[in-house]
Specification:
The complex is a heterodimer.
Chain A: E1 4-7, E2 10-14, E3 19-25, E4 30-38, E5 44-51, E6 56-59, E7 62-67, E8 72-77, E9 86-94, E10 100-102, E11 106-111
Parallel strand pairs in A: 2-11
Antiparallel strand pairs in A: 1-3, 3-8, 4-5, 4-9, 6-7, 7-8, 9-10, 9-11
Chain B: E1 4-7, E2 10-13, E3 19-25, E4 30-38, E5 44-51, E6 57-58, E7 67-73, E8 76-81, E9 90-98, E10 105-107, E11 111-115
Parallel strand pairs in B: 2-11
Antiparallel strand pairs in B: 1-3, 3-8, 4-5, 4-9, 5-6, 7-8, 9-10, 9-11
Classes of the chains: A mainly beta, B mainly beta.
Chain lengths: ~110, ~120
Amino acid sequence: KQEVTQIPAALSVPEGENLVLNCSFTDSAIYNLQWFRQDPGKGLTSLLLIQSSQREQTSGRLNASLDKSSGRSTLYIAASQPGDSATYLCAVEGDSNYQLIWGAGTKLIIKP
Amino acid sequence: GAVVSQHPSRVICKSGTSVKIECRSLDFQATTMFWYRQFPKKSLMLMATSNEGSKATYEQGVEKDKFLINHASLTLSTLTVTSAHPEDSSFYICSAQLRGGTDTQYFGPGTRLTVL
């Protein structure tokens, strides 16, 4: 049974720092892995999607990597800004049932 | 932990039929449930927000007569895609917000709808 873990559960850093969020999964048989952002009281935003055959994806200040064999993904945020404060979720999609298994999220606070 | 289930996980239907998708919070009460649709290339769209016992609030551009949402209890919300067409084929995801808790949403595993 696939399990997705995100560490840390919460993170608070000063503005301008580079930071890394971690996501690990127990079953490497995945179709893809996604990173999402959730703002308080609001909906979900898809940030990056990495197919199982890919190793990384980049969008602006965000870079997500995938190491399927070790069951790990990282989301790198460069030059963090207060507007980056949100909860970041990762989810893996199984390559057989195509359902999403969600991590519990990392709550990120960027201090001005 | 808080678990949200969706049923069915996959459904294939003919054009013109209606499909009902259930979203359940298994071990907690949810005052608010959200319905999302994920498009190809994985952009996610919030379709509507439903509160138990009241009408759902639809996002702009989402047809409320096309996507019927019922939140009859604190543990169940349903999304019915009426008169489905191939362009409705998508991945539908629900989430539930814990009653009396924070703004944390707990997400379901999704339902993949294919309309032939």
